[in-house]
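User: Sequence in, structure out. Go.
Assistant: Echoing your sequence, followed by the structure tokens.
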Amino acid sequence: MILPQPSALSFSAGRPLPRDANAPDGGDGDGGNLGALPEWDLSDLYSAPDDPRISADMDWLETACTRFAADYQGRLAELDADAMLECIRAYEAIQNRAGRLMSYAGLRYYQNTVDAERARFMQNLQERITEFTTPLVFFSLEINRIDDDRLEALLAGNADLARYRPVFENLRRMKPYQLSDELEKFIHDLSAVGASAWNKLFDETIAALTFTVEGETLNLEATLNLFTDHDRGRREAAAHALAGVLGENIRLFARVHNTLAKEKAIEDQWRGFETPQTSRHLSNQVEPEVVEALRNAVVAAYPRLSHRYYALKARWLGLDRLQIWDRNAPLPLERPRTIPWEEAREIVMGAYGDFDPRMAEIAAPFFERGWIDAPVKPGKAPGAFAHPTITDAHPYIMLNYLGKPRDVMTLAHELGHGVHQVLAAPQGELLSSTPLTLAETASVFGEMLTFRKLLAEAETPAEKKTLLAGKVEDMINTVVRQIAFYDFECKLHEARAKGELTPDDINALWMSVQAESLGPAFEFMEGYETYWAYVPHFVHSPFYVYAYAFGDGLVNALYAEYESGAEGFQDRYFAMLAAGGAKHHTELLAPFGLDATDPAFWNKGLSMIEGLIGELESMEE
């Protein structure tokens, strides 16, 4: 997922979503028999909040922004190719320094979101950086005022400058929607106390919630973890505890969503965006019709995928109807198992190494140099993410590891993000970041490699069935569930455009997509209608969620190509990841013979899920 940060920072999070209704398994963080769990060493960024380098870098940033505006404002259209290249590189250096500062503040904050000092440190840094970078607002506005022929001549006349063509193209996609210089500066200045502030309120509220389950007080992670417990009574108790606490806080969560949706609608209207989704499609560099084709293909497949699988699962569990606390329940034949950290590492690194030793070599430092924060701790942000930081440092991965088999897949997923980010880093600050639709490619591929390795090593039919069922559930969570979430967001923003929404209004929108996507095998308990409230993607990154389905479908097609024994696949795969954001998805997929603009493309990926469900059905005979 992408958690917005100032100065174009991003937190790429692969696993708050597919695990149980948008958060991974969680727990109490005592480690148990998991072994020693790694924690971040942030000293590669800064040694401490009072590190003298922070004040020095802030001083440098303030001076650099002032100098950049003095040197280039009002002059971009006059620059020759060499001067334009120098300008771009100066802008990139500013992005790098601001990125280092906010990466440190953000990562430190997510380790303990209820620590007031950490929150204050990040907020103060964000406000000052926003102030420093306000003079830079002119940059994209003036770039978009340069005549097309003039810009093309500059790019054609300097090979080093031409490397930044995608940067110019992405900026110019926003040309029809940009506002006056003064309005753009106003929006930039307001960002620190607008959506960003509501995001913090959401994060801090979620992190502070506690849930009482059978007399035990748990945080969100631990409560969600119980949804995969073998004891159905504990699963039910967790479901009711979650619903109860969310219900008690539902007015606050409704206020957050109402405010953010209205703020977005106001800016969208001023910019002239055709739909609430337009800005996301532009940032994803994906055509609206491609997303619509994906969405329609998945919705049409609900009966063949989720409806069919959950009917099968109800039979396995001996139930006429499933309750929501049964959705992620383990199979009756599945042995409860806790996987120590070192074993999880060996599983994932083995799968990566079997694919290509280079992949394991890139992944190794994450385990060895404090690039992973794995324990569940009080106040720590829920979920999981991989944050690329800046291109002359390295990514950091956050997990909430409790030793569940699915936690191993989360590790594989986030490590895929990390490998992708390391490979793309040489592209530099302005070209390394991939659009969301491609950001999930390496993460989902890493999961697929790990799953296939475990499946090949399964020793009994029961173990194979358990693995297959787990993978199908993950794919349903990644594809079906995320498209249902996308539909919920579309309905939410459409309804908000007509006026303020009550909690009951939002609850009804949530239930309308849940019933359609999960199907007739389910009954829905009273209180489930509030479960939208803890989904971070709706708050942090509107319409992010379809990127998961995009990534899963893309990876299914890629993996089919790999399984076919296509010559040179690994080299082409690494080249695709190393391109970062320097190429459009059509260019990246062409070497594999794939085309995401073809509506039939998505049915290929969905057919793989159908095939796995069919394999499970055949095991019943």
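User: And one key feature?
Assistant: Residues 1-31 have pLDDT under 50 and may be disordered.
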